Amino acid sequence: MRYRTIPGTDIAVSEVGFGVWTVSTGWWGQTDDAEAIALLRAAHARGVTLFDTADTYGSGRGETLLAEAFAGRRRDDVVISTKFGYAWEGHAGPRGQRELPHDWSPAFLRRACEGSLRRLGTDRIEVYHLHNPRMDAIESDELFATLDDLVAEGKVRSYGVSLGPKIGWRDEGLRAMGLGRGATLQISHNILEQAPGRELVPVARETGTGLMVRVPHSSGMLEGKYTLETTFPPGDHRSHRPREWLVEGLAKIASLGFLTEGRPYTLGQAAIKWLLAEPAVVTVLPNVYGLEQLEEFAAASDLPDLEPEDLSRIADLYAANFGVAPAAAAAG
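and the corresponding structure tokens:
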């Protein structure tokens, strides 16, 4: 495993991190606590040190799983990233795609921070992110002054902004970096879905912002395991994707065979290496839900870097929509 340092800090993180969302929310299938904890520890044993969660994941379960997995001596060997901003307590249970209300007041921020520290069983959070903020939060000087106070108090080591919930929020990302709202920006970005990441990456480079990238495999499409017969159970978040996403996605990844033919990568590993080719990216957060998959993704860091020709070819393919006509255009 290779490591990178979050800009402006002394916090080193593994190039491949662990998105705790996968094992704590049930949206990728059910994982009991013992299985989740065993997978988290297996990741750490393979060099993964960055674990990304949020207070909303499983109504706090993502944080308590980390506490159980890394209590005691392991705590000093892990970097915990969590998020705040949703007034989620009192809204327990399945919520589907429904958004919860935000609360960006300093008082709520302090309560949220104390709640996360308690659930995590720790005295500090290495990376603390605003969770899917809109422009009002990003422009709140009062909110960021409170975050600075939490840093001064030693409860938070660094902070930033996590964009979402869906791929988008270009303006919020540009504004956050333009105002210097923290050391990190978490974005969804991958070979197939490069908007608005293509605009955010060069600005991150210019402003010295460290990018933490989630959805590196386009909800599993870039793992290379789907077929036209693939279906997802109703509770799985991928079941909300339209049929066209699967059909078009499979057609697109058919053009990426050059990344794996006679090469040392699986498609899933190549997708991670494509992201790590960007110096502004400090860590990639794949969705991990099994040991075999964990081993595959964790091993990507030490594989040879992609060649410049590979990166150029991917850019050309993206510009041409991978040679695939969108379903809407084809239907017309």
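(Above: one complete record from the training split.) Residues 93-97, 328-332 have pLDDT under 50 and may be disordered.
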